[in-house]
Amino acid sequence: MRRQLAAIIRPFVMALLTLAAFVLPVRAEDNVRIQLAIMNHGVSLKPVDRGFFPLVEFRDAAKWFAKRGYFVVAPVGTGYGAAAIDIPERALYGPFFSKVGKCTNPNFHDAGLAVAKVDLWIIDYMAAERRIIPKDVIVVGQSAGGWASIALSSVNPPQVKAIITFAAGRGGRVGGKPNNNCAPDKLVEATADFGSTSRVPMLWIYIENDTFFGPDLSKRMHEAFTAAGGRAEYHLMPPFGGEGHFFIGSPDAIPLWSPLVANFLDPQK
């Protein structure tokens, strides 16, 4: 690959879905494979918001990983962009499969595994293209994308050597209200379930002023995950801006989280 570092859109045809992705390739000699970094974004439950969703929420963070030598692929969730169609009264439904259902009985488990499956498709595609080192993949996820990354760890894909999450979780800010979580006990329960089989080294980063998944809830999730057998290093960062949940999306946050990430990844080489 002899390409200039740039953002391109490349379609991934998986099953019956076409998945667009923000891609940051890196310079490499011909026939030389490099490490892959997959970056999972969060979820919007409103079709209108999904229709105007940016191609990638954390472009500067993606560039940081690319500069470290990773081929970065940030898939755009199915049901986003032009596919954000959801008009039940007209029998129109988009391919958005990340819903958790009602808060009375949310299915956090399967919603996470659905997106995790997309990551596995991407890994298989990139390996078949002979562009990556098949067993040197890292996965990074924010919010619902972080939750999907935790779900991915539960199946221990041999290609994935490390996973990093920022503000991971599902069901935050129900009705737009700060610190109003959808069935937090069930979220902790699902986290423990993933931890019972997860053995991939993980780094979990949360922020004190995150109004989606505050410190009390994130600590409960971590305790449940590790008590069940999962391997996760937990860090709670000081308040950042007006809303810490979108910490990874700010270029000003890179000097704050990059030393933690570098210290976590370097021993994994």
Keywords:
single chain; 269 residues; alpha/beta; eight-stranded mixed β-sheet; two-stranded antiparallel sheet; 20% strand; globular
Q: Describe it for me?
A:
30% of the residues lie in helices and 20% in strands. It is α/β, with parallel strands linked by helices and 269 residues long. The radius of gyration is 18 Å and the shape is globular. 44% of the residues are buried.
How is the secondary structure organized here?
Blueprint: E1 8-9, E2 12-14, E3 17-19, E4 21-24, E5 35-40, H1 47-51, H2 59-67, E6 70-75, E7 86-87, E8 92-93, H3 108-128, E9 137-142, H4 144-153, E10 160-166, H5 184-195, E11 202-207, H6 215-227, E12 232-237, H7 254-265
Parallel strand pairs: 5-6, 5-9, 9-10, 10-11, 11-12
Antiparallel strand pairs: 1-4, 2-3, 4-6, 7-8
Helix pairs in contact: 3-4, 5-6
Provide a short characterization of the protein structure.
This protein is α/β, with parallel strands linked by helices and 269 residues long.
What's the number of helices? Answer: 7
What does the radius of gyration come to?
A: 18 Å
Structural class: alpha/beta
**Biggest sheet statistics:** 8 strands, mixed
Q: Bin the strand percentage.
A: 15-25%
